[in-house]
Amino acid sequence: MIPIDNIYKAAEIIKKTVIRTPLVYSPTMSRIFGADIWLKLENLQKTGSFKIRGAAYKILTRKKEICPGGVVAASAGNHAQGVALAATNAGIKSTIVMPEWASISKQEATLSYGGKVVLAGQSIGESLKKAREIAEKGKTFIHPFDDLDIITGQGTIGLEILEDLKDADMLLVPIGGGGLISGTACAAKHLNPGIKIIGVQAAFCPSAYQSFLKGNISLVKSRLSIADGINVRQTGRLNFQIIKKYIDDIVLVKEEHIAAAILMLLERKKILAEGAGAVPLAALINRAVKIHPNTKIVLIISGGNVDSPLVGRIIQKGLLKNGRLMRVKLHLNDIPGSLSNLLSLIAGLKANILHIYHDRHIQDMALNMTYVELELETRGHDHINEIQESLNNSGYKSV
């Protein structure tokens, strides 16, 4: 759909603006999933995401056509930052419309790159509408994904991957509006026609998934997701044309698997990925993608702009999913030594006690009883089962 020469040209034009991000092999993940797993680390890109590629190419190649008022874009965060930085580097003013729920940290990052932030809309679609209205007053609109220049710029990721790993068998790519996957696919399928390209989308907003199944663009209802970067209710028109031609499959992942993927990347590779960037790994965790031994699979970790206040909640959700946290709620006899005996049992089972809540004043609880709630650090689901069995055998009954 997009000539490979155009993507090579884009790579040359933006090479001084973007970082050639590393493609790293993960022995641990390869062992866990039974294939050779590689990670394309776009979370290390300028602005923390791949979006700077398309934005920079668009602005640098269309600079003479941009209105005197500058550019305007709509985004929940990553496209916002990419456009703001690319415009500032080119000496152009930028206005970014962000949905009202956009995180404060992403608003502040966009401002720091020189963009003017306007909050409008409860969805990306509503923000896009507002951005188009602003464009009518003398600014050049830059679409986050449904634009050939944007798609071409994102395609440089595919070039880099296939230059570093010519015999890659499969790419797992986050998909929302479709800019990243359509650009990457155009490059990858040209350089390696046999490569499989799988899109991964959050189940809370399955727009590309539904469109792919039905064969036409579908507008879907969505729910707030920790993968907010791909929370797009409708896939782009240009993007979908490429998706139909080049994409082999699209799969869905649940919130709990996305959280588990963020945690695995953080613990095993010391990589901080945002929800959208972690969905390729989530697709391996929930077995949504069938893989074969000795195949080379590349996960595109598309961004790392996760909100600091959200990190703790995501980690805890991931720990619960992986059996690394356990909550125990019990009634104990309110006599000396009861709590000590319980804690000794827990210690003997090699569980680490993180929090204890102890309350004698629970409504409808017998006067000679006390309520205890424990949060334990555990090694996995087998360890949790061992603890629960020991508690039951010792006469402790969960509330």
UniProtKB/TrEMBL annotation:
PROSITE patterns, A to Z: ACT (PS51671), DEHYDRATASE_SER_THR (PS00165)
Catalytic activity of the protein: L-serine = pyruvate + NH4(+)
Single Gene Ontology MF annotation: pyridoxal phosphate binding
Highest taxon in the source lineage: Bacteria
Matches recorded under SUPFAM superfamilies: ACT-like (SSF55021), Tryptophan synthase beta subunit-like PLP-dependent enzymes (SSF53686)
Keyword entries, A-Z: Amino-acid biosynthesis, Branched-chain amino acid biosynthesis, Isoleucine biosynthesis, Lyase, Pyridoxal phosphate
Pathway note: Amino-acid biosynthesis; L-isoleucine biosynthesis; 2-oxobutanoate from L-threonine: step 1/1
Domain spans labelled ACT: 327-399
Cofactor section: pyridoxal 5'-phosphate
KW Lyase (keyword) present: yes
Family (UniProt): Belongs to the serine/threonine dehydratase family.
NCBIfam families from the UniProt entry: ilvA_1Cterm (TIGR01127)
Protein name in UniProt: L-threonine dehydratase biosynthetic
Species: Desulfonema limicola
